[in-house]
Write a structure and sequence with these properties.
- The complex is a heterodimer of chains A (95) and B (494).
- Chain A has 95 residues and is mainly alpha-helical.
- In chain A, 34% of the residues lie in helices and 6% in strands.
- Chain A contains three helices and two strands; from the N terminus they run ααβαβ.
- Chain A is flat and about 55 Å long.
- Chain B is α+β, with helices and mostly antiparallel strands and 494 residues long.
- In chain B, 39% of the residues lie in helices and 18% in strands.
- Chain B has 16 helices and 18 strands.
- In chain B, the strands form four sheets. In chain B, strands 1, 3, 7, 8, 9, 12, 13, 14, 15 and 16 form a ten-stranded mixed sheet that branches. A three-stranded antiparallel sheet of chain B has the order 6-5-17, with no helix packed on it.
- In chain B, helix 3 packs antiparallel against helix 4, helix 6 runs antiparallel to helix 7 and helix 13 crosses helix 15.
- Chain B is elongated.
- Classes of the chains: A mainly alpha (95), B alpha+beta (494).
- Chains A and B meet through strand 1, helix 3 and strand 2 of A and strand 2, helix 2, strand 11 and strand 18 of B.
- Strand 2 of chain A pairs antiparallel with strand 11 of chain B, so a sheet runs across the interface.
């Protein structure tokens, strides 16, 4: 599968990553190679095989509905780039 | 950024050429104590950013763990809606960036929702019944709450709500009018409240609804392009938004313009919708299985336990009240509006056979007492047996309904536990049904107003009420009005 520059831009945007346009061609080549390599898996016939959704064989690891300890309010806000005494503050989001 | 669209009224003739197609997505906040994947409290109204944990805030290295009760609640809803319950459930990540979602993804169910298919029967205003088919019900988590205050350059974010368990109920594009959508929501609200899984409060956001609306020429089988409308905070506003979209889309169609498949927001003040232009033109959520959660497998035994603990459902009770208690559908509708009232009525009907009187008592004096003091039926001081003996007192002719409701009932409310008979006796309210003691009183009244008797006999039948009033006054209200009325007419017509 060939990755073109538009796809590269879209993926970067979805991941909120910025890149230097000069490196674009090199990156498309790299990504194409990675995908080609993974595509090798398609050589196997997996029809009739359920998709693997977890690496563990555990099932039903659940909690009872009990309230536990909370993170202290001050600690929770500590790493916020911007905050006030109650809230996290982010640049205005307009819908 | 927001484009306003005004629409001119459209003639019913033109409207009649189109069919309106509606599908709804309803989010219901589950009434669990703790969040969907963490043990933070779900309590509403706490100080901002106090119901938080490292997981809720999306810190690295944290592991989610599924709340068993939330799964049970989702299954309850599925059973109540006749869905097929998925036995092996996995969770997925829905990836997107938004400040109210610290992890950068929402843990939801993409493929294999816990409830598949299902249906919700509704009744329209004209009595017509219809079944709305469900596509799915799945489990997910809520986002935090953003506040965009006027005059504030920042958006404030509170993560108390982030991670609160939700179910999303998705219908097929099955509804054909705003009324059907309205009735569907009413039914969903009733169901979640009967099931005790959500408080159903749309104004406070514990029930939220998005509508997918499209039109197609009548007779067409191809659905038009759908428009998703958000931001409606009441059932009535959902109906208004649908009506507005119907008109707007017809107008575009008639003018040969394109209906754009987009997300629009409803403005309750103007009653119109407008486009929500986001930078993200194409939503690409890149769903993939959540690797941090193990599958939830619903065993036969677990399913059976949930099934056995299911309360009676509103529709079952409605049908029972009409069928077994012979109530008018109006009464049955009012009585099944809330589960607690319906169950009180059920208990009352175990104690009396006069079901219609039981219904009248509940819809009348009981409900007005509760409404007046904004009390819940659970706080109602009189037990069903008390109301039943009050009904019996009236049925036996010992007191009239008005004495029962105006004199005895208020005493019972004041001192719960006192029997109505005892109150009636102590207040000297037991009415006299004995013809031999009532007759002399009536004879005396007629004798004293012989002029009026003559007028009555000359045709002024309206005087009957005046005579009755005199008799009741003379008997200090204790003469059985039915008996007194009968004797009075006998003597007057003699």
């Amino acid at each position: 599968m060939k990755i073109d520059v538009n796809t590269l831009r879209k993926i970067a945007h979805l991941a909120r990553l910025e890149f230097d346009e000069k490196g674009a061609e090199h990156m498309t080549k790299d990504m194409t190679q990675i995908l080609d390599w993974v595509e090798k898996l398609n050589e196997l016939d997996t029809s009739g095989v359920e998709p693997l959704t977890t690496m563990s064989s555990e099932e039903n690891i659940m909690r009872e509905d009990v309230v536990g300890e909370h993170l202290d309010h001050e600690k929770g806000l500590k790493n916020a780039p911007k905050r006030d005494s109650d809230y996290f503050r982010v640049p205005k989001v307009l819908e | 950024m927001i484009e306003e669209t005004k629409t001119a009224p459209i003639s019913t003739g033109i409207k009649g050429k189109y069919e309106l197609v509606i599908g709804l997505e309803v989010h219901a906040q589950l009434l669990t104590n703790s969040k969907m994947y963490t043990s933070d409290s779900t309590a509403y109204g706490n100080l901002p950013n106090t119901n938080i944990s490292v997981l809720t805030l999306g810190h690295p290295g944290t592991l989610p763990k599924v709340n068993k009760r939330a799964v049970e609640f989702a299954i309850r809803m599925g059973l109540a809606c006749n869905c097929e319950i998925t036995r092996r459930n996995i969770f997925s990540r829905k990836n997107y960036f938004y400040p109210d979602l610290p992890k950068g993804y929402q843990i939801t169910q993409d493929k294999g929702p816990i409830c598949v298919g299902g249906e919700v029967p509704i009744t329209l205003g004209n009595g017509e019944n219809k079944t709305v088919t469900l596509n799915r019900i799945h489990m997910e988590e809520d986002a935090g709450k953003s506040m965009h205050l006027a005059g504030e350059t920042d958006t404030l974010v509170d993560f108390n709500r982030a991670g609160v368990p939700l179910i999303e109920i998705v219908t097929e594009p099955d509804m054909r009018s705003s009324e059907e959508a309205y009735q569907f929501l009413t039914e969903i609200k009733k169901l979640v409240r009967y099931l005790d899984i959500c408080d159903g409060n749309m104004e406070e956001g514990s029930l939220r609804c998005d509508a997918n609306i499209s039109i197609m020429p009548k007779g067409s089988k191809t659905l038009g392009k759908k428009v998703e409308v958000k931001n409606m905070n009441s059932f009535r506003n959902v109906a208004r938004a649908i009506e507005h979209e119907f008109d707007r889309q017809i107008l575009l169609y008639e003018n040969g313009e394109d209906i754009v498949s987009e997300t629009r927001t409803f403005d309750a003040t103007s009653g119109t919708t407008s486009s929500m232009r986001t930078k993200e033109d194409l939503n690409d959520y890149r769903y993939f299985p959540e690797p941090d959660l193990s599958p939830v497998v619903v065993s036969e035994e677990w399913l059976e336990n949930i099934q056995n603990e299911l309360p009676p459902l509103p529709r079952e009770l409605f049908e029972k009240f009409v069928r077994d208690y012979d109530l008018p559908t109006y009464d049955a509708g009012v009585l099944t509006d809330s589960k607690e009232i319906a169950l009180y009525f059920e208990a009352l009907c175990q104690a009396t056979q006069n079901y219609k009187a039981a219904s009248n008592w509940l819809m009348g004096p009981v409900k007005s007492y509760l409404n007046e003091l904004t009390l819940h039926i659970d706080d109602f001081p009189i037990k069903p047996e008390g109301i039943a003996s009050l009904i019996l007192l009236v049925d036996e002719g010992k007191v009239s309904f008005s004495v029962a409701s105006q004199k005895i009932y208020p005493e019972m409310l004041k001192s719960a536990g006192r029997s109505p008979l005892e109150i009636a006796q102590s207040l000297n309210l037991i009415q006299d049904s004995d013809e031999d003691s009532i007759k002399p009183i009536i004879e005396q009244v007629l004798e004293e107003s012989s002029g009026k008797v003559a007028e009555y006999r000359a045709g002024k039948k309206g005087l009957l009420g005046m005579f009755m009033g005199q008799v009741m006054k003379r008997s200090k209200g204790k003469a059985d009005p039915k008996v007194a009325n009968k004797i009075l007419i006998e003597l007057l017509e003699k």
